[in-house]
Design brief:
71% of the residues lie in helices and 0% in strands. The protein contains 13 helices and no strands. The longest helix is centred in the N-terminal third of the chain and has 27 residues.
């Protein structure tokens, strides 16, 4: 078995676990506010995050070298987490994934003002086609757009913004700083809002929140193994396998059947995203904002994968 084949299998496993993680969020979202789910998810993630922190041997303090960029990233991550959890709670899984899959398109756009990247006309065409796919999924004017659709869009935009900031400052900031600030901010903000929405939780539901944290940690480990084993151009497209898991889980647990628009729009978005990934694989590292942003949307609820990949010289 080649290294790229192993990497693809690791990545498929990772994104399968991530999809299961999102199913539990949707189940809990039927009875609890996203504020409560995010708060306990972060709280239960801290012991697992400590395992990452123990590996950070770099010297320095917890004071960021780029405080304004870090503040912007932290705020974006908090918004992303809340909006993503809300969207998963109220929308069909396949629709949420289809909208979140617009992240490579958004990262390509944001790389221009933030990273100073030059985007050639081929990638602009891919971005335009991909955003058309988002409109196909949303069907403005043909169907009632819900708050969940807006939440998914905001999550995709803010998650892409948070990720591209890491691409900008990641070489200079410590991994622990990049990871810890969004998690702490999420914990503090959601704790302040929690009294407004809190519902008593039986032990069974607390256990589900613990499983969310465990799944995120386990999937993260598989994703790290994938990127450390094979090429990014092989691993990155594996994220689109989540649409298959979403369709399967949606039909099995929530009586959700993806409609024609969701399927067609997803195909358009995925095709444009794959084109961008393949184009970037042919460019030098400084022109790879998508390939070098190697996590799910930044939610600030679990340790970020990319910060720990930077220890491997191949990813610097």
């Amino acid at each position: 078995m080649t290294s790229n084949t192993k990497a693809a299998l690791f990545a498929l496993t990772a994104f399968g676990i991530f999809a299961s993680h999102d199913v539990i969020i949707k189940v809990l979202g039927g009875g609890y506010s996203p504020v409560q789910i995010v708060f306990f998810s972060v709280l239960f993630s801290f012991p697992l995050a400590t395992l990452y922190l123990l590996r950070d041997a770099t010297t320095g303090t917890l004071i960021p070298k780029h405080p304004w960029w870090m503040a912007a990233r932290t705020a974006a991550a908090v918004v992303t987490g809340f909006c993503a959890f809300y969207a998963f709670s109220v929308l069909p899984l396949a629709q949420v994934y289809a909208i979140l899959f617009a992240a490579p398109l958004l990262i390509t756009i944001l790389a221009i003002p933030i990273l100073g990247e030059q985007v050639h006309w081929q990638r602009w065409v891919a971005v335009g086609v991909g955003l058309t796919g988002v409109l196909v999924v949303l069907r403005p004017g043909q169907t009632d757009l819900e708050l969940g659709h807006l939440a998914a869009l905001v999550s995709a935009i803010c998650g892409s913004f948070a990720s591209i900031i890491v691409r900008k400052i990641g070489r200079e900031e410590r991994s622990v700083v990049i990871m810890l600030y969004p998690m702490m901010a999420n914990c503090i903000v959601m704790a302040m809002l929690l009294p407004l929405v809190y519902e008593p939780m039986p032990l069974e539901d607390l256990g589900k929140l613990g499983v969310i944290a465990l799944f995120a940690w386990t999937a993260g480990r598989f994703l790290i193994a994938a990127y450390n084993t094979g090429e990014a151009v092989v691993v990155a497209p594996m994220q689109y396998s989540q649409i298959l898991w979403a369709s399967f889980y949606g039909m099995m647990f929530f009586n959700e059947t993806p409609d024609v628009n969701t399927i067609a729009g997803s195909c358009i978005i995925i095709a444009s995203g794959l084109f961008i990934v393949l184009r970037e694989s042919q460019k030098p590292g400084s022109e790879q904002p998508v390939l070098r942003t190697r996590s799910r949307p930044e939610t600030g609820t679990t340790p970020r994968i990319s910060t720990f990949l930077r220890r491997d010289k191949r990813w610097k």
